[in-house]
Amino acid sequence: MSGPALHLAVEIDGDGTHPAAWRRAAHAPDRLLAPRRAAGLAAAAENAGFALITLDDGVLPPGTAPDPVGRIGAVERAAFVAASTSTIGIAPVVPVTYAEPFHVSSQLASLDHISAGRAGWVVTEEEHPEAARVWGRPQVADAAARARESRDGVEVARALWDSWEDDAVIRSVATSRYLDRDRLHYIDFTGETYAVKGPAIVPRPPQGQVVVLGRPDRVPAAHLDVALVEGRDPAAVAAAAAGAGTPRVFAEVEVALDTPDATGAERVADLERYAPWADRGRLRYVGSADGLVAVLGELSRHVEGVRLHPLVLDEDLAVLSRLVLPALSERRLVARPLPGTSLRSALGLERPANRFAAAAVQEETR
Fold first, then answer.
1. 10-residue stretch averages of pLDDT, the chain, 366 residues long
2. Bridge partners of 91?
3. Residue 222 and residue 216: Cα distance in Å, rounded?
4. Of 40, 116, 182, 185, which has the fewest beta carbons less than 10 angstroms from its beta carbon?
5. Full-model pTM
6. Are 55 and 313 in contact (CB under 8 A)?
7. Which alpha helices (DSSP H) does the chain contain, by range?
C-alpha cells in the first residue's frame, strides 16, 4: 500500500551534490549567468510538479579561499526566479552565523512579497573560517556557538516579521496617512552576542511568517516549520522524523539515477576519479527511476516531504521530471502545489497570527 502524498523539494544550486559534478555539467561555468540558469531549472522543476526548490548560498565557494569575483547571493537569485515561476516554493539557504538577522529578515520578507507568498528559508551554519574575515566578524568556531547564532537569528527574524501588524499599511492619499504607527512594534531582543530593537523596515510577509526549514539538532523545533532530517536508510529516517517535533518533516536524500547514457553507478564511478562523494549521513539512492519511486513510497509513511540532492543536476533533474514525478503522480504519491496558493498552504501549514495583535486582543478581553 502507498503512503500519503509527499511534498517534493529539490536543491538546484551549483552543478550537483557531487563536488566534481561540474565535469559532467552541460553548461559553461559562468557565475554571472547563475540567476538565468536558476530560473530555467526552477521552471523545469515547477513543470515537473515539485513543491519547492532550494538554492544554496555562502560568501565562499565550497572548499576554496575567498573569491575576489564574488557570488550572486541565494536570496538575489531566488528573487530573480520568483518572477519566472508561479506555483513552486522558493527557499534560499541563508546562514546567520555572521549575517545580520535584521537584514536577513528584511530580504526574506521582500522575497515573500515578490513571490506572492511562496518564500521559504533554509537555515544553515557557516563553518568556513575564511567567512569570518569576509564579514569582518570574530570567528564563531565551535558547534555550540554556531547553533546559538542560528537559534537567535531565527528568533529575531520571526519577531521582526511580526513587528508590523497585517493592517499597519494604510495608503490613504486623501488623509496623507500611509502607516499606522500604533500597529508597529519594537521586538526588544537581547541575546548573548547582540541586541535588536526593531521594528522591521519591510511590511509583514504575505504568509505572516516565511516558512522556516532547518535541522532540529541545530535550531530549536519551536522555531521551525519543517525539520530536515537525515539517515542512511528509511528506518533511520523514520527514527529521526519521529523525534523532530515540528509541524512538517522532510527527509534529505541524495540521488544518482540511471540515464539513457549511463547507469547511476557508472556516473558515480566516473566522478569518483576526481573527488570523493562525501558521506553526509544521508540516505543515498543510486539506480533506476522505478527504484527511487519505491524508496519515496516507503519514506511517505514516515515524512511529509523529501528534499532531493541530485548527483549532477543537468542529468538527474531530467530523469526526475520525465520518469520519477509522473510515476509518483500516477500512484498519487506526490502533492503538486496549486496555482495561487502560498507555500504555507501548499504544505498544509496555517498562517500564524501576529503575536503583537494577539496580545492586544487578549489584553482587551481581560
1. 82 91 75 77 96 79 42 86 95 93 97 98 88 81 91 97 95 85 94 92 97 94 97 96 97 98 97 95 97 97 97 96 97 93 97 89 64
2. 54
3. 9
4. 182
5. 0.92
6. no
7. 34-48, 74-82, 101-114, 129-135, 143-162, 234-242, 264-272, 289-299, 313-319, 325-330, 343-346, 355-365
